[in-house]
Structure prediction request, 81 residues.
Amino acid sequence: MRCKKVNPEPRTLNPEPRTLNPEPNMEDRMDKWECPCGYIYDPEEGDAENNIPVGTPFEELPDDWVCPLCGAEKEYFEKVE
Ligand SMILES: [Zn+2]
Prediction:
């Protein structure tokens, strides 16, 4: 009786294939960015006015995203340490 059941592990439980990150602690912490006008983009709040969902890191904002207060482009923002 041959019943060779090759059953590779079903990998449906892991929706995040982020194994390349050498520092797992960085996952929880997203940087805030400050506009010259004083506005601070906080990834934990997103930007409702511009349809930016909560949890969007600054780096993933669309290129045409601008400061909701003064209209400055992303390149003028500085990372808040
Ligand atoms: Zn601004």
